[in-house]
């Protein structure tokens, strides 16, 4: 038994308080640190779930967007095939009509051969398509693929289903005013005779020879073309850099794979087990799936990724997107390591405190206890502060992920969620949803005049007005740049959408104060509605954007609601823009010449050069369409130079320089006239070709003079010095033409056809033309009347003293060959 002596008792008294305090201090701190670690781990796990959920939402969004696009294009296959068939037959009909009209004096056999020879070699649908011609009694006139059938009757031809192919098509053409679509089943080249495939074709009645002209194509081939196109385009759909899109078939074969070049690509032909599993588990509604694969280093570690799969109904395709969850794990591991370092530092501080407390415990336990208690309280506060800071950071990250950094408004991701929620609610309650796309007009001027900082402040101010002007259920998002998108849910009538849009426009009535300056802003608006315009968020936004473009083009500051025709018009305009860029290099543009006739002698004394565009697939494109597009995309100068050069060469070839030589009028666009090198380039071209400049009349319209009259005067004066003649086109249609005659050196005035049309029935039009002629005579100018189509109009204009006329009464615009033939008659 141990004897407790004084020395031992002193030691016990001396060391026991320190030991007890140290023990309890360590115990308390261990508990606190463990609690802190538990909270940190829970917070990190929550962060992990949020990051994975956000990534899953992102891959679902990108996959659904790509899948919906594929379904839309698939649904449009038959409509597009019908449209293409009708366009092709219309082209063939136009060719046949043109040949017939130009050879009416020839025998029918000669003209028929000209037509069949012209149509026989034409191929389309990637070389598969061809034309056929049948008499209305079933005799084959032309078969582009099987010429040995020509001259043979196909009246009794049947498919495997017993349908009389030719009879039914001819009956439909007769019933439907000379043109009709037709579905039939037919053998494909290279396939067994007993196997037929569905075709869709179009036929058009050619009255002069009791024919119909037609063509057709297999639906399966068009679908295959579409699949091939989609495999190239869909894989490039917009998505985050941490995602990978892929498309496989129902057997697990890889059709398209964005990450195929990577050594660590998940989907490869060597990993057939995984691709077959994906193909078997995918369904049309879409689903998430965990994907595993052995990594490239052949270790035992698996590469784990989360994917979203969706099966394309009607095709043997599965489209999907995936992200690597190991990246999330790495991010979480870094956060865990940071938390461990922080806890170790805290533990070290606690140990130092315990030693310090033990040394001072010898004095008085109360003081030491008090000090220890206060110190522990401080540590507790610090720990709680760190936990609160972590929670705050988490909330900030969540906010940043869903909101625009500049304005604090919702970003695209949050907007898409809100629109989808609104659509689901509208489905349940039979309501409407409006998506409104807003773009600030002339926002670039704000940046140019006031700086980008002022532009950012203006966007913030607009965002604040938007945020406080509408109900909590409404969502406004900054979509990018100076674009904003509203989602207005729970609407009962479209009038409520009009009220919302009117309120948006009212917000721009008051000026904005930016850096002490007043700035007046204006916006253009495009709107689309669920369910009438689309059933998907992406589609509603896209269609609202389409009509926004239309709104800005036609009248800035206006609001326009979506209509399906606007989408078709815009797609057609984009097509023309792309095709026009290659029209010159492809030699699709050419020049025709409209004769100008002397009213006294009725002889051709001049021509007007007119640009024309013949597209190999779209056919003849109206100048009213492609000239405006050329102005917009900056090609008008190149086209103008081409027309000017070609016209100079052509006129010199049919009429050499000399007395009574044929003159030529050439239209000049405002952009072309105002270019710095215009005068020198015109002079150089005429010098190189050798055409006297006095034979050239440059036609300009009044709008070129509206903003830069002084500059226009200098240019026209210099052109006059270089012997060019100047004509004022469309005289009388503007507001200031009379003043321009007094100020600018014009040689000629052209009277617009709108006045000539009514000259024989409207005394006001006749009096107006009489006044124009009197003014022109007073200034010593030549007058040219456009649009003369009847002899009565010619008689009146000759009586009134008009110098020259042009119009269909004498001739339509002529090719160079026909113009040369007419000139020889002179």
From TrEMBL:
Domain GGDEF: 431-564
Keyword ATP-binding: no
Keyword Transmembrane helix on entry: yes
Membrane topology, as annotated: Multi-pass membrane protein
Pfam families listed in its UniProt record: dCache_2, EAL, GGDEF
Alphabetical UniProt keywords: Cell membrane, Membrane, Transmembrane, Transmembrane helix
Spans through the membrane: 12-33, 347-372
Location, primary (coarse class): membrane
Gene3D superfamilies: 3.30.70.270, EAL domain (3.20.20.450), PAS domain (3.30.450.20)
Superkingdom of this protein's organism: Bacteria
Domain EAL span(s) in chain numbering: 573-826
Compartment(s) where it occurs, according to its Swiss-Prot or TrEMBL record: Cell membrane
Entries under PANTHER family matching the protein: BIOFILM ARCHITECTURE MAINTENANCE PROTEIN MBAA (PTHR44757:SF2), DIGUANYLATE CYCLASE DGCP (PTHR44757)
Name used for this protein in its record: Diguanylate cyclase
Organism listed in the record: Shewanella saliphila
């Amino acid at each position: 038994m141990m004897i407790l002596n004084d020395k031992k008792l002193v030691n016990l008294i001396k060391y026991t308080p320190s030991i007890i305090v140290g023990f309890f201090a360590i115990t308390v701190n261990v508990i606190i640190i463990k609690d802190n670690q538990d909270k940190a781990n829970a917070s990190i796990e929550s962060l992990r779930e949020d990051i994975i959920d956000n990534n899953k939402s992102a891959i679902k969004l990108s996959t659904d967007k790509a899948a919906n696009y594929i379904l839309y294009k698939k649904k449009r296959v038959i409509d597009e095939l019908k449209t293409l068939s009708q366009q092709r037959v219309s082209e063939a009909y136009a060719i046949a009509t043109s040949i017939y009209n130009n050879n009416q004096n020839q025998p029918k056999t000669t003209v028929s051969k000209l037509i069949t020879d012209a149509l026989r070699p034409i191929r389309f649908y990637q070389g598969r398509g061809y034309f056929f011609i049948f008499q209305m009694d079933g005799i084959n006139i032309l078969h582009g693929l099987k010429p040995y059938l020509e001259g043979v009757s196909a009246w009794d031809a049947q498919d495997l289903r017993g349908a009389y192919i030719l009879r039914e098509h001819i009956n439909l053409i007769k019933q439907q005013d000379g043109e009709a679509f037709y579905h039939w089943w037919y053998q494909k080249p290279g396939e067994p005779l007993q196997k037929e495939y569905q075709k869709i074709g179009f036929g058009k009645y050619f009255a002069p020879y009791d024919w119909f002209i037609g063509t057709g194509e297999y639906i399966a081939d068009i679908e295959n073309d579409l699949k091939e196109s989609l495999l190239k385009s869909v894989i490039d759909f917009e998505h985050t850099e941490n995602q990978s899109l892929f498309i496989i078939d129902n057997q697990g074969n890889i059709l398209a794979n964005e990450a195929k070049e990577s050594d660590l690509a998940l989907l490869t032909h060597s990993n057939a087990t995984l691709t077959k599993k994906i193909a078997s588990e995918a369904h049309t509604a879409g689903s998430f799936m965990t994907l595993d694969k052995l990594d490239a280093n052949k270790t035992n570690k698996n590469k784990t990724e989360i994917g979203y799969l969706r099966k394309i109904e009607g095709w043997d395709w599965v489209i999907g997107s995936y992200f690597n969850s190991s990246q999330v794990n790495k991010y979480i591991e870094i956060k865990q390591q940071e938390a461990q370092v922080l806890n170790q530092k805290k533990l070290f501080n606690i140990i130092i405190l315990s030693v310090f407390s033990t040394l001072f415990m010898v004095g008085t336990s109360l003081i030491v206890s008090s000090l220890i208690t206060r110190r522990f309280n401080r540590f507790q506060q610090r720990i709680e502060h760190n936990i609160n800071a972590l929670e705050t950071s988490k909330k900030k990250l969540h906010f940043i992920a869903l909101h625009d950094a500049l304005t604090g408004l919702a970003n695209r991701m949050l907007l898409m969620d809100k629109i989808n929620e609104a659509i689901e609610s509208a489905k349940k309650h039979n309501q409407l949803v409006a998506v409104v796309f807003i773009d600030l007009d002339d926002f670039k001027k704000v940046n140019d005049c006031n700086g980008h900082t002022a532009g950012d402040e203006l966007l913030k101010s607009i965002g604040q007005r938007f945020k406080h002007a509408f109900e909590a259920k409404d969502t406004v998002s900054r979509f990018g740049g100076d674009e904003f998108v509203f989602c207005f849910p729970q609407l009962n009538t479209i009038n409520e959408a009009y009220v919302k849009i009117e309120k948006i426009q009212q917000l721009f009535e008051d000026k904005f104060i930016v850096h002490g300056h007043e700035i007046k802003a204006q916006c253009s608006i495009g709107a689309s509605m669920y369910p009438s315009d689309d059933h998907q968020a992406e589609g509603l936004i896209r269609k609202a954007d389409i009509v926004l473009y239309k709104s800005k083009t036609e009248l800035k500051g206006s609001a326009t609601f979506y209509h399906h025709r606007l989408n078709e018009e815009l797609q057609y305009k984009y097509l023309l823009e792309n095709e026009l860029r290659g029209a010159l290099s492809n030699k699709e543009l050419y020049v025709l010449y409209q004769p100008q006739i002397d009213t006294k002698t009725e002889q051709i004394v001049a021509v007007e050069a007119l640009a024309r565009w013949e597209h190999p697939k779209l056919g003849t494109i109206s100048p009213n369409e492609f000239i405006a597009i050329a102005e917009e995309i900056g090609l008008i100068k190149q086209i103008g130079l081409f027309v000017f050069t070609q016209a100079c060469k052509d006129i010199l070839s049919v009429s050499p320089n000399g007395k009574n030589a044929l003159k030529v009028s050439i239209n000049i666009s405002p952009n072309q006239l105002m270019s710095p090198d215009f005068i020198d380039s015109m002079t150089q071209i005429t010098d190189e070709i050798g055409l006297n400049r006095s034979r050239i009349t440059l036609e300009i319209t009044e709008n070129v003079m509206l903003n830069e009259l002084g500059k226009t005067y200098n240019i026209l004066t210099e052109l006059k010095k270089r012997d060019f003649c100047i004509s004022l086109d469309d005289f009388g249609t503007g507001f200031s033409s009379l003043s321009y005659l007094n100020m600018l050196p014009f040689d000629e005035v052209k009277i617009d056809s709108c006045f000539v049309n009514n000259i024989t029935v409207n005394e006001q039009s006749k009096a107006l033309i009489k006044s124009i002629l009197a003014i022109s005579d007073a200034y010593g100018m030549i007058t040219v009347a456009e649009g003369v189509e009847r002899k009565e109009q010619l008689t009146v204009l000759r009586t009134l003293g008009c110098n020259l006329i042009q119009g269909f009464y004498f001739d339509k615009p002529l090719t160079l060959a026909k113009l040369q033939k007419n000139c020889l008659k002179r």
